[in-house]
Each structure stands twice: as C-alpha cells, then as structure tokens.
Amino acid sequence: MKNLILVLSASFFLASCGSGSQDSEQGNIDSTGSVATESSVEASVDTTNAPIVYQETDTYSFGEVKEGEKVSHEYAFTNTGKTPLIINSVRASCGCTTPYYPKHPIKPGEEFTIDVVFDTSNQPGLQHKVITMESNAYPSQTIFHLKGEVK
C-alpha cells in the first residue's frame, strides 16, 4: 500500500512539473491565445517611432595601467529616435566594473553618458569588460566594451 501511494505521489509530482513550463520557455500567451516570444515582441516594436541609441564608438581602450588603479570612462550616446529613451538597466560582465547611468527619460535628440569605473585590484593581465544596456530602444540591447592591460 505504501509503495502504491509513493508511486502515485511521484507520478503526480512529475506530471505537475511539466505543466505550464511550455509557456515560460516559449513566451507568454497573449489575449488572442498566441504565444508571444521575445523575438516576436521585439519584431512588433514600432521602429519608426522607437528610441534609437547612437554611439560613435563602442570600445574604449585604457592601454596599460598598474594593478590597483581605478579606470573610468564616459561613454557618449544620443537618442536619435522620435520618442523618449528609458534605460531599464546597465550591467557589466564583471563585478569589478560599475556602470552609472541616467535614471530619467532621455528626450529625442538628447545626448547622455554612461560612466563606467573598472577597479583593477586583483585583475592582472589583458582585460575585456562587456557592458550591456537594456532599454526601450530598437534594438533593446546596446553593447559596449572596455579593454586594456593591467600590469
């Protein structure tokens, strides 16, 4: 009897684990019953009016620095779109790199900067840090780089 209850419990648990996971893997079901994936959501963005992030250069090379120094750089951008740009997050590929970004909407035509500080402590050798900005722009991700060598 105990074995039967154990088998039924295990079967129920395994069956319930599979339910609902299809939606989260493939996307969300919208009001029409269609599954909206990330790519289809981005494809449905009004690209003619969406904010557009323009950056003159996406890579900054700080050259060679001594270990323990803090390297900072200000990346310049412009919203060349027709609507305000809202930055959701800016994250770096390493905890030793800290980005600072505007929290207010950036108007069309307005320039803005993202300041990045890289702490070289315990980071010897060639470095390549990737910084990713998520926003309501088209495309939604803007990637830029910080490179150099710590001696």
Mean pLDDT: 81
What percentage of residues falls in helices of 4 or more residues? 10-25%
Biggest sheet overview: 4 strands, antiparallel
Task: Report the radius of gyration as a whole number of Å.
Answer: 23 Å
* Gross geometry: elongated
SS-based class? alpha+beta
| Extended strand count | 10
Looking at how many chains there are and whether they match, the oligomeric state comes to single chain
Poorly predicted ranges (pLDDT <50, ≥5 residues)? 4-42
Measure the end-to-end span: 69 Å
Element order: H for helix, E for strand: HHEEHEEEEEEEE
Share of β-strand residues: 35-45%
The helix count comes to: 3
Please give a quick description of this structure.
Strands 3-5-8-7 form a 4-stranded antiparallel beta sheet, with no helix packed on it. A 4-stranded mixed beta sheet has the order 4-10-9-6, with no helix packed on it. Strands 1-2 form a two-stranded antiparallel ribbon. With 151 residues, the protein is of the alpha+beta class. The chain has helices at 2-18, 21-26, 38-43, and strands at 28-29, 35-36, 53-54, 59-65, 70-79, 87-92, 97-100, 111-119, 125-135, 141-150.
Q: What do you see in this structure?
A:
- The chain has 151 residues and is α+β, with helices and mostly antiparallel strands.
- It has 3 helices and 10 strands.
- The chain has a 4-stranded antiparallel β-sheet with strand order 3-5-8-7, with no helix packed on it.
- A hairpin with a 5-residue loop joins strand 9 and strand 10.
- The radius of gyration is 23 Å and the shape is elongated.
- It starts with a helix and ends with a strand.
